[in-house]
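Design a sequence for this backbone.
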């Protein structure tokens, strides 16, 4: 699985990273582990998965986390994650 993480401010991508996970773990575990790793790389907090994020991700394999999803705040308008390759 390959997931693309993008920090966006004023409709411009300011930082991005890609996380690959080829383990035999579940899809959910790969996403959670990848999100932690990407947030560390992007030097931002880990977002809280709200119901709307879960529904969007299940349906479209992508979602956006706004500042409301971060306890520590976010130095961007949103963090978008998107699956670009699945096993």
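Sequence:
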């Amino acid at each position: 699985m390959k997931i693309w993480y993008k920090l966006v401010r004023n409709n411009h991508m300011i930082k991005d990273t890609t996380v690959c996970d080829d383990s035999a773990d579940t899809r959910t575990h790969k996403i959670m582990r990848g999100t932690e790793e990407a947030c560390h790389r992007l030097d931002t907090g880990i977002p809280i998965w709200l119901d709307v994020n879960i529904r969007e991700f299940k349906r479209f394999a992508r979602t956006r986390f706004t500042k409301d999803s971060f306890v520590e705040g976010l130095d961007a308008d949103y963090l978008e994650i998107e699956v670009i390759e699945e096993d």
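The chain has a mean pLDDT of 93.
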